[in-house]
TrEMBL record:
Gene: thiL
Catalytic activity: thiamine phosphate + ATP = thiamine diphosphate + ADP
Originating species: Sutcliffiella horikoshii
Keyword Transcription regulation in record: no
Protein name (database record): Thiamine-monophosphate kinase
Function of the molecule: Catalyzes the ATP-dependent phosphorylation of thiamine-monophosphate (TMP) to form thiamine-pyrophosphate (TPP), the active form of vitamin B1.
Length: 326
């Protein structure tokens, strides 16, 4: 059954309780109101998922679409070192989507939102030809904690969390109907990415960190840091963390996907050399994988990849680009 009434739909998706009830006016008025906590600044971001661009009916179930749209935004909060608090949802619904499917999209957001005690506090609903889901997230971070892309300095260590390329491998499996049951971890990386909030919080305790999350691909994110900081970045090819599953699935494409696949939602950044051992230890204690992949050198915003055999190649912004899909 397709959705028959906008107002009944809004009632249906309204949460029955709020985690931060004392601080907000949520769904039900013209706009939401959120309290401002002493000692913190707000973080705000929005990311959109469009049918045919970010997902198809074949690659993502409705639950996954909701889950991933919220995850992408939580990941941006993580990349600023903050905690996510609230979200708003703008949804454009084509007639062909059933009420159950729409409910599943919201259930996907709810299941991840609950993990972080986030409240759904508003949004907007329209009909339209293509499913478009925009999620807005509000988070917080302590005053003056700024994990900016422009914070990298000469001599810093470059690091990345987890493994990269898995989400693109998962997408390849889904698009080409290949062995989805044999490579569940890759498929899951694509459909249910895990935002790295805990790592962002660990990083926020350090003096100076540059940070970015991997949405468009490692190469693109490194270049964003290099450009914002006006430095050059050198990474070592053999240190890029590629999972065994990805290697097993397609060894030939693994490095390409790691560099340009995108949607891994891992954190990539730099930290002073003197803080690296401490960061490594804290991640070990927290059970999180973090890998040194290179160093920061003087320069004007380029990134290079080096091999053990000495070959050096310049990285290009070959990650996902909405208007330049070659
Ligand atoms: N249409 C837009 N209008 C205003 N700001 C935008 C728009 N699109 C992106 N931005 C801003 O540009 C920056 C980079 O965006 P984006 O590449 O989407 O970042 P991310 O990959 O972290 O989501 C962000 O600060 C974002 O808020
Ligand atoms: C059907 C399908 N084709 C291709 C992709 C790959 N893809 C789509 S958007 C994107 C990049 C991330 O999305 P974007 O809107 O650029 O997010 P942002 O950088 O703003 O976080 C990638 C890798 C996909 N997820 N699904
Ligand atoms: Mg974005
Ligand atoms: Mg980002
Ligand atoms: Mg992008």
């Amino acid at each position: 059954m397709s959705i028959s009434d906008e107002f009944a739909f809004i009632k249906d998706i309204q949460p029955d309780r709020l985690f931060h009830a004392e601080k907000v006016v949520g769904i039900g008025d013209d706009a939401a109101i959120i309290g401002v906590e002493e000692g913190f600044e707000k973080i705000v971001c929005v990311d959109t998922m469009v049918e045919g661009v970010h997902f198809t009916r074949e690659t993502m179930k409705p639950f996954d679409i909701g889950y991933k749209a919220l995850a992408a935004n939580i990941s941006d909060v993580a990349a600023m070192g903050g905690y996510p608090l609230y979200y708003l949802v703008s949804i454009t619904i084509p007639k062909s989507w059933t009420q159950e499917e729409l409910k599943s999209i919201y259930d996907g957001m709810k299941s991840l939102g609950e993990q972080y005690e986030m409240d759904l506090i508003g949004g907007d609903t329209t009909s339209g030809k293509t499913m478009v889901l925009s999620v807005f997230v509000i988070g917080k971070v302590e005053n003056s904690k700024r994990l900016l892309r422009s914070n990298a300095r000469v001599g810093d260590v470059m690091f990345v969390s987890g493994t990269v390329g898995d989400a693109a491998g998962g997408l390849d499996i889904l698009l080409h109907n290949k062995n989805a049951d044999k490579f569940e971890t890759l498929v899951e990386s694509h459909q249910r990415p895990k935002p790295q909030v805990t790592l962002g919080r660990i990083l926020s305790k350090f003096e100076r960190v540059s940070l970015n999350d991997v949405s468009d691909g490692l190469a693109s994110e490194l270049l964003e840091i290099a450009e914002a900081s006006q430095v050059d970045i050198f990474i070592n090819k053999e240190t890029i963390p590629i999972s065994e599953d990805l290697q097993r699935y397609d060894a030939d494409n693994a490095l390409k996907w790691a560099l340009t696949g995108g949607e891994d939602f891992e954190l990539v950044g730099s930290i002073p050399e003197t803080d690296w051992a401490k960061l490594e230890k804290e991640c070990l204690i927290a059970g999180m994988k973090i890998t040194k992949i290179g160093t920061v050198a003087s320069g004007e915003g380029k990134a290079f990849i080096k091999s053990y055999n000495g070959a050096v190649q310049e990285l290009k912004k070959e990650g996902y680009n909405h208007f330049n899909r070659g």
